[in-house]
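Lab notebook page, bench 4
Experiment: in silico fold of construct C2
Operator: M.H.
Input chain length: 152 residues
Purpose: comparison with the prior construct
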Amino acid sequence: MMEDSLRDKIEVLNEIVKENETQKEILESTTEFDEKGFDEAISRKGELIRRVDNLNDGFESLYERVKEELDQNKEIHKERIRIFQDLIRQITDLSNSIEAGEKRNSALAKNYFSVARNKMNQGRKSSQAALDYYLTMNKSKITPPQFYDTKN
């Protein structure tokens, strides 16, 4: 059961890696930002993280029950322990990969939102300049040119 739990965790972590890649593609996209796709990827990742937490809790409770047996009879369970160690190494590698992907995506998101914020500020400044010009021109006391009929 512990081995199955570790293998399930590897599958879930691989799915998280895929979701990180999806987020990366959305953030690096040169076309319009896919807000819906980005939100869905975050939601799916949240669900996967909950599954990892449940698997961790299940593994920990199983390990606590068999820990004494494994410690006392290491030679008997030597092959099984080696399998567990290999699976845990894979999990650690995937966890490191996920962490690196999260940092990369965080930097991409900060960059994207910074650029979007700058565009909004620039648009706001342009609108304000146009409004200021309009208000200034409406308040000016310049008499518009007029036609005078000079004929009697």
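Observations: The mean pLDDT is 82. The two ends are 112 Å apart (CA to CA).
Next step: discuss at group meeting.
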